[in-house]
Structure formats: structure tokens, C-alpha cells
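[job 4417] fold queue: 2 targets
>>> target A
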Amino acid sequence: MIRRRAPRILRPIQRRPVAYRVPWQVERADAPHYRIRNAGDHTLRGVTVSVFGTSRFRVAAPAVVHPGAAVHATVDGPDPARDTILVVRWFAPDGAEYLWQVSF
């Protein structure tokens, strides 16, 4: 017995929204002093910086970072590349919250 298949109904392709591009750029030339620059076109609000691992850090993180401005952070530890990450948190212009992880 041959089974007949029901005709396939093709659905229109739905476009997905474009991914949000991370607006940060890390300047590492003066390690262990880092600049985390807002390389985007929008002012970012609620900016905080945290470090996880065995390193210590000092940071001057303003709550608002305008395009072109930077957050300055100094990381001090025996081997940050091995066991430390920096996490930047901010709110995009649409109010969405983002976290971005930086490795050394």
C-alpha cells in the first residue's frame, strides 16, 4: 500500500532582528591599565564593572558613558590571563540590560 503525503505548506521566511553589536572596545596597550571604550554611537547608562577571579582591580566607572569615552580599570594579580575575567554591565538605549565578559 502506498501512502500519500499531505502537501507541504511553505511558510514565508521570517526575518530575525539584527543582533545587538557590543559597543565596547578594550585598549590593552598599557596593561595592567586598561581602557574600556564606548565605540558605539549611543550613550550607555547604568555602567558597572566587576572582576571575578584571584586578581584585584581598581576602576573608575561612571554610571553614564558617552560615545568615545572610556572606563579606566587597573587589574593586579599574579596571572590574570589564567584566572580572571572582567564583566561590564550596561543598559542599551532601548532599556535592555547587557553583560559582556572580557578575558585578559
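>>> target B
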Amino acid sequence: MTIKHFAIKTLTAIAVSGALSAPSYAAAIGETKVNYGGYVKLDAIWSDFSDGTLPSSHIGRDFYVPGTTPVSASSSEDAVFDMHARQSRFNFSTATKLADGSDIKTKIELDFIVTGGGNERVSNSYSPRLRQAFLTYKGWLFGQAWSNFQNVGALPETLDFVGPSEGTVFVRQAMVKYAVGNWSFSAENPESTITTAQQGRVVTDDASMPDFTARYTHKGDWGNVVVSALARQLTYKTGAADENETSFGISASGRVNFGKNNLKFMLTQGKGLGRYVGLNVANGGVYDGNELHAIDSTSGFIGYQHHWNTQLRSTFLYSFFSADNDTNLLTITGDPTESSMSYSANLLYSPVKKLTFGAEYKVGTRETQSGLEGDINRLQFSAKYAF
């Protein structure tokens, strides 16, 4: 195909798709359709911590990470203000018609949050990071994508990067997944986070088998319900230690429609879930020097979105996490998180489609096993344009 023919096809695709108002821009190269999309977003965040503050460039200042909320025996309030555009993202996808009539699709997605780079003095440079990179073919998915254990569609619309951080399953990783009808099954990359007396949190990568998931989705005009299950092996193989422990969990989530409004929810319970829930607010297990003990946990959220009119909408959200720590192991674990919860409400204004200005207020609390407690009050303003 010549450059002239490619340009004509590209311009035609843009004209058909509605130019700048379209969610992505398409071009055709032979039998392959090419699309790209994403958004640009500015966040201005004021955070008031009840028990000290987080240092500059800490992840917990870019978005709400429940396990980082400071706690201490003495109250020492401190407020900080941050502004960044690191949530901005870009995705590139293709769809190709093969000779046998089937389709093969690919997607690569990047953003700039949770990465290193420059400082905030001059350039504010940040390295791009890989969010997703996968191909799909005849029901199969190969690559890095959202875990099959997670229901991304249940996440409420929030200005915060995650929203119900302590209450949601939230993992992207390499996998092989197969979907048929309402069912999907996957084998995913294994990784364990273990508490030890000598090193605190240890991230191990010595599992002998992948993590396995199964998921069922039921859809109707009223909304949808998703039930997913996870089975995996926690491992700790360091020095003379060669321990493993079975881990499992189940999660139910979904969306219920009330006209233009909706209710989204998730409830997850399991043994040794660790990094799969709450942005790893608790580890998967504890190594006591002889055996590996899985940590039980329960988490969930409920969020209601109300459309005030065609341009204004709000999301009201409650999220929680609770760990059942073995108090006999506290000499090893120190003072781990026992519970975390947060409330938030926002007001979003879209004067035109894909352009949104918003304000959100969030209150979060983290409590440790000894009873130490820390709070965060956060006010966030955002401007976002999706293309």
C-alpha cells in the first residue's frame, strides 16, 4: 500500500468516525484496522493526614493506597498539596481479518503513574509504564491484561485512580485466558507477598505452577453479576525454607441499573489473597520460621451513581477491608493492618461528551492490630478529556 492510499483510508476513517468526537481514530492497512485512544487528565490533590505525612513522590500522594495511610501513637496532623498529569494514558490496538475468516486483535496500553523519572523542580519527567499488552484469537487471550479474578466493569466512576482501593480486587498480569459463552478461565503469573521476622515483607517468585481462575458472567437489561474464583499457591523458598500453602478466594460483583443511574458492588472473601485485594494492604501469608500461614481477609465496596441532569452526575462510595490476623504471630508480623475503610463523594460535570471536570472528597481510615489508627482527608479536583 502506498503512502497516498494509506492517507486516503485514514482520512476516510476519521471522517466516518466523527473526527474529534469519536472515542478513537481508525485507519486501515490491508486487512488490518488500527485504532488509538486514551485520555489526558490533570489532578490537583490536597491531602490532610492525621498522623504525620507521606514523603515527597510517595505513591500514596498520587492516589489513595490504603496500606500507606500513616498511623502513630501520637496525633500529628499534616497537610500537603500535589498536582500531576500522570494518570494520562494512551492505547493502540489492531484488528486483522485472517485468511480463514477469523479475527486476531491486539492491544498495547501505557500510562505514567507509579513510575520513576525526573523530579518536580524543572521537567516533571516520568517514564511510561506498560499497563496492558495482549492478543486475542478464537476466544483465547495471551499477554498482560486485567486478572480474570477481577471485574473491571464494577469499578465506580471516581477521580481517584482506583476509587474503592481497599475493597476491590485489582491486578493486571501476564496470563493465558480462554472465554466461552458466559464462562472464562485463566492461568496467570504467580507471585506471593510473605511476612517474615527478619525482612518484613518479602516478594517471592518461586511458585511451581500458575494462579488459576474461573469466572461466570450473567447479563440482562437490569445490569450484570459476575462470580469469580481464584486458586493459587503461596510459596516461601529462602535458605533452608521450602514452604507452600494453598490459597483460594471467591468474589461476587456487578452493576444494577436504575434508569440512567446505577449501583455497583463487590464482595470478596478468601484465604491468602494478599496482593489480589486492597492494593496489597495485607500480605498473603506469614512465615513463622517453620511453617507458612495464610492470612484470611474480607473486603468489598458499594457505589451509587446518580445523574442529576445530562451534564452533572455524582458517585457516592463506601469501601472496606478486614484481615483476620493470627495474634499468635504478632511477634513476627509486628503491627499489621487489621482494617481499612473509606468514604467518598464527587460531582462530575461534562459540558460536552468526553470532557469532564470534577471535584471529589474522600475520607479514609487505617487501623493496625494493636489499635493504632490513622486518617486521611483528601480533596481532589480533576480535568479530563478522553479521545
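[job 4417] complete. Note on B: The two ends are 27 Å apart (CA to CA).
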